[in-house]
């Protein structure tokens, strides 16, 4: 008797329990919910030769930046699927192997081709999507549109109540500027499965992009207590709430959230989130005119010392440069920039020259060379999207340019930038800044 996954695709396992545990484990993985590792381990225990369960477990290790474990597990899946896998399963495992072993461009190419044949293979379709997906980190300037195009191309293959697809389709539209549609789709996905950190995260983004800051804070305050601190998005969703507090001019509340949920000593988040959330929050706090308590920059920099030391991961590079600049380690910024320039020369930095420009700009801002910061940022402002992440994460770079314009006397340019932002969505912070320029 053939067993199937949660979207009706056949599975090469003779075990009902293994198939059941796999379906449940993948749904937990796709909703960033605790317990996925243990449930997938149960699938493997029920059928040690179940290749896709090994592959999903490898994906979880990769998300946690446990690369040695991820590579060992995906190698086991490759050996098994070569013996007893279907064509889809062999392709599925191959794509995950490419992604885990650092061949991102090839993984993206193969994932898109795979989706054209098996669009309901959601673990593979999920790889290009999201703020940290293969599209976002491809170096493409139009990756927001590419996510929308991918979702719309395959929308007909999904049920109207598929919570996972609704969440990612909504996220794609909201990030690409169609906030009303994105929020409606994401709300539907959230309502169908509230135990879904990706939906709560995507919905808070849609609210943020629509200027509904109070609603986003209320959503997080109501939802977060039901999400275990072991959840990989727990601290990052709290980070959104801290940004909301900064938005309305409440640094004490923002710092309380940071202390309780975000700082490295209390979070179980993914390293890329911990590094980016700590660096960007502390940068915003200081840049907006508030005091960063003693030791917070140093604690964040100490945590980052265990990750992303090698240049080439554009999104991490920018946040590592922020940390180094803020702690006075000019040499670290210059060394990272030098390595990036070498990668560009070799054609090996997909995001291109925008990355060293942003790192240099972060250093100039930290040194209060605001005119120099403007000279570095203005020419690459339209290219910042290439580093990946979300619009909310990249907005920090726009804030850097805006504040550098204001502090270097470029009031006309600063006002024009603020006008564009306020036209896009309401913002108490931007309204305050606009008032300062008018005064």
Topology overview:
Blueprint: E1 3-4, E2 10-11, H1 16-30, H2 36-46, H3 51-63, H4 67-84, H5 87-100, H6 104-117, H7 122-125, H8 143-154, H9 163-175, H10 179-192, H11 197-209, H12 213-223, H13 234-247, H14 251-262, H15 271-287, H16 296-304, H17 314-326, H18 330-345, H19 354-366, H20 370-377, H21 391-407, H22 411-424, H23 428-438
Antiparallel strand pairs: 1-2
Helix pairs in contact: 1-2, 1-3, 2-3, 3-4, 3-5, 4-5, 5-6, 8-9, 9-10, 9-11, 10-11, 11-12, 11-13, 12-13, 13-14, 13-15, 15-16, 15-17, 15-21, 16-17, 17-18, 17-19, 18-19, 19-20, 20-21, 21-22, 22-23
Can you describe this structure?
There is one protein chain. Strand 1 (3-4) and strand 2 form a beta hairpin. The radius of gyration is 22 Å and the shape is globular. It is built from 23 helices and two strands. Helix 12 packs antiparallel against helix 13. The protein has a two-stranded antiparallel sheet with strand order 1-2. With 439 residues, it is mainly α. 67% of the residues lie in helices and 1% in strands. The protein has helices at 16-30, 36-46, 51-63, 67-84, 87-100, 104-117, 122-125, 143-154, 163-175, 179-192, 197-209, 213-223, 234-247, 251-262, 271-287, 296-304, 314-326, 330-345, 354-366, 370-377, 391-407, 411-424, 428-438; strands at 3-4, 10-11.
In short:
The chain is mostly helical and 439 residues long.
Percent strand: under 5%
- Spatial strand arrangement across the major sheet: 1-2
Instruction: Kindly state the percentage of residues in helix.
Output: 55-70%
CA distance, first residue to last residue: 75 Å
Q: How many helical elements?
A: 23
Biggest β-sheet: count, sense, barrel? 2 strands, antiparallel
């Amino acid at each position: 008797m053939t067993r199937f996954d949660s979207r009706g695709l056949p599975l090469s396992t003779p075990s009902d329990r293994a198939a059941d545990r796999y379906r449940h484990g993948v749904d937990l993985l796709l909703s960033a919910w605790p317990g996925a590792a243990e449930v997938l381990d149960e699938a493997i225990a029920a059928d040690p030769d179940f290749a896709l369960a090994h592959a999903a477990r490898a994906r979880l290790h990769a998300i946690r930046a446990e690369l040695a474990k991820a590579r060992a597990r995906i190698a086991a899946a490759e050996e098994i699927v070569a013996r007893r896998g279907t064509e889809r399963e062999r392709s599925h495992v191959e794509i995950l192997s490419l992604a885990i072993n650092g061949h991102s461009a090839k993984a993206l190419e193969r994932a898109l081709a795979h989706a054209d044949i098996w669009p309901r293979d959601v673990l593979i379709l999920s790889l290009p999507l999201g703020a940290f997906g293969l599209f976002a980190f491809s170096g493409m300037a139009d990756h927001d549109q590419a996510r929308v195009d991918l979702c719309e191309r395959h929308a007909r293959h999904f049920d109207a109540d598929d919570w996972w697809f609704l969440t990612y389709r909504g996220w794609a539209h909201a990030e690409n500027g169609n906030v009303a549609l994105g929020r409606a789709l994401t709300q539907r996905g959230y309502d169908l499965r509230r135990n879904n950190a990706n939906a709560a995260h995507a919905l808070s983004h849609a609210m943020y992009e629509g200027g509904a800051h109070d609603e986003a804070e209320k959503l997080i305050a109501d939802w977060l207590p039901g999400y275990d601190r072991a959840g990989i998005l727990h601290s990052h969703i709290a980070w959104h709430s801290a940004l909301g507090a900064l938005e309305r001019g409440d640094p004490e509340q923002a710092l309380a959230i940071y202390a309780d949920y975000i700082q490295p000593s209390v979070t179980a988040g993914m390293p890329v989130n911990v590094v980016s959330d700590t660096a960007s929050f502390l940068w915003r706090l200081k840049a907006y005119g508030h005091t960063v308590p003693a030791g917070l920059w140093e604690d964040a920099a100490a945590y980052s010392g265990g990750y992303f030391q090698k240049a080439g991961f554009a999104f991490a590079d920018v946040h590592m440069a922020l940390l180094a600049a803020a702690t006075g380690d000019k040499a670290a910024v210059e060394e990272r920039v030098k390595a990036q320039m070498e990668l560009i020369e070799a054609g090996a930095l997909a995001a291109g020259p925008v990355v060293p420009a942003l790192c240099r700009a972060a250093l100039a801002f930290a040194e209060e060379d605001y005119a120099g910061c403007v000279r570095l940022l203005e020419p690459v402002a339209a290219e910042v999207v290439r580093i990946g992440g979300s619009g909310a994460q990249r907005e920090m770079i726009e804030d850097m340019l805006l504040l550098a314009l204001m502090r270097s006397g470029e009031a006309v340019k600063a006002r024009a930038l603020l006008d564009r932002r306020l036209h896009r969505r309401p913002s108490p912070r931007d309204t305050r800044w606009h008032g300062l320029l008018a005064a």
